[in-house]
Write a structure and sequence with these properties.
The strands form 3 sheets. A 5-stranded parallel β-sheet has the order 2-1-6-5-7, with helices on both faces. The protein has a two-stranded antiparallel sheet with strand order 3-4. It is α/β, with parallel strands linked by helices. Strand 1, helix 1 and strand 2 form a beta-alpha-beta unit. Helix content is 32%, strand content 17%. Helix 6 crosses helix 7. The two termini are 36 Å apart. The protein has 7 helices and 9 strands; from the N terminus they run E-H-E-E-E-H-E-H-E-H-E-H-E-E-H-H.
């Protein structure tokens, strides 16, 4: 996979993408990440990327000219030596569809992504209408810009790539993978400050352990995320009669 990121602040990405799973995936050539400075696609002395909105209002908008030129140039250039690779273009914006594990899996199946980081009060609507394939939000709150949203997407996507975690089973029981939160987990020591690990986990009975984990995952989901539990219950009720819920 190759990921391009178009931003006003390239240095923001220097730390997060040089550590942990993302760094290992890059070192092993499982993913290539290229950061592009939007100001490199301006042609005036001051490298202007924004302007006042027509009709008035607070704040500034990213201008269409540098965005159009940047997106066209980035998507036209080959990545990872594949000249005809299709690029899925994403605008990171509060108005987009909400990011989720399902969306992460959908994007991880693509070979090339371009993430456009919104900033200020947003982008000229013509960019939204004519230059991107997708719009994504990471939640109902306000960020300074799309850079932090891009980091979230990259981290969630890269960990789903084959071999990125070093084991194909490493992420199979993560929260949200099976539509529930993850069950409680424990490690040594068996007793700490009087609190003991549940006996079932040291019983050696794998069937009982699996049953306990599923029950705990469902209980935790119902307590902490009733919205997810309701969706899970609805999906089970809608199963065909021939299938067990």
């Amino acid at each position: 996979m190759h990921i391009d990121i178009l931003t006003l602040f390239p240095r923001v990405f220097e730390g997060p993408f040089d550590e942990s799973i993302i760094r290992r995936a890059r070192d092993r050539h499982l993913v290539g990440i290229a950061i592009h400075d939007l100001r490199d696609y301006t042609h005036d002395t001051h490298h202007t990327v924004d302007d006042y909105p027509y009709g008035g209002g607070a704040g500034m908008l990213l201008k269409p000219e540098p965005l159009f030129e940047a997106i066209e140039a980035i998507t036209a250039s080959p990545s990872l030596n594949r000249e005809h690779e299709s690029c899925w273009k994403i605008l990171l914006t509060p108005q987009g569809r909400v990011f989720s594990q399902d969306v992460a899996q959908e994007l991880a199946a693509r070979s090339r992504l371009l993430m456009v980081c919104g900033h200020y009060e947003g982008v000229d609507e013509r960019v939204r209408e004519h230059m991107v394939d997708d719009e994504i939000s990471i939640g109902d709150y306000v960020l300074s810009g799309g850079e932090f949203a891009a980091m979230v997407l990259v981290d969630a996507i890269v960990r789903l790539l084959p071999d990125a975690l070093g084991s194909e089973d490493a992420n199979k029981e993560d929260s949200h993978i099976w539509g529930m939160l993850e069950y409680p987990q424990y490690t040594r020591p068996r007793v700490y400050q009087g609190w003991e690990v549940p006996s079932v986990l040291i019983s050696g009975n794998h069937a009982e352990i699996a049953k306990w984990r599923r029950e705990q995952a469902l209980k935790r989901t119902q307590q902490r995320r009733p919205d997810i539990a309701a969706k899970l219950q609805e999906s089970q009720l809608n199963l065909p009669d021939s299938e067990e819920p």
